Amino acid sequence: MKVAIIQFKASTKKETNLKKIIDYITKAAEKKATLVAFPEFMMFYTNSSQSSKQLATLAETITGNFVTSIAKCAKENHIDVVGSFYEKSTKKDRVYDTSFIIDKNGKVISRYRKIHLYDALGFRESDKMVKGSKIAKPVSTTIGKIGMMICYDLRFPEMSRSLAVAGSEILVVPSAWVKGNMKEEHWITINKTRAIENGCYVIAPDQIGNIYCGRSLVIDPYGKILLDMKKKQGIGYVDIELKNVKQIRKILPLLKNRRTDIYPTLKI
Q1: CA–CA separation, 146 vs 136, rounded Å?
Q2: In the structure, what pLDDT confidence band is assigned to residue 267 with cuts at 50, 70 and 90?
Q3: pLDDT at 268
Q4: Eight-class DSSP state of 49
Q5: From residue 266, how far is each of 100, 128, 157, 260 by CA, in Å?
Q6: Cβ(177)–Cβ(212) under 8 Å?
């Protein structure tokens, strides 16, 4: 199954990015991809001078024009789409950082609100965003059962393990990984580790430009890098095989060999 991964530099203008997104979806479908995955913050780039009120004003609901337009394009091109957007919340001047999966019929089949906000290394996403309250259940797609995470979630292994135990064969992680000292090393190491320890594919489309490092990745269940987009803007393609997930989980049965009867006995 062919998967398309998008790495691009989002502008501050929602309409400009939406046109690019529609174009990328169409091109991916023309190349016979069954799913196309976009990075975090693809809706628009939020710079430090933009206030939380301004961001909240530009945010939309899941039934707003941004997601609806993408869903229409997915249906027209008969392709699954994983994307992200700033979702309105009930908390004043705060938004959710939300990812979604749209199937080839144009239906939103999953929505996940980021639960780990990036309040680290000099950043405070909680100044403009509100935390999600639950992990989205894995959903069946044309490429397999997908579990959703977003960027900073990668640093919390409990989440990817929970998704794997719940049946995920593929983790898709829309990201906007900030550049900095050792940050690319962290990015690559963590993505590989999440794939190896769970015996699953990891698809991690990342933003490039502005303050982000690029290096969009696809990792196989044994930790092999199948795609590294480096600093290139555009579309990368990878073929994945679900039989590899079954084979690796059979010969390296990490999920099966867990000792969940023992772990809770450690008291602090």
Answers
A1: 10
A2: confident
A3: 80
A4: T
A5: 37, 37, 18, 11
A6: yes
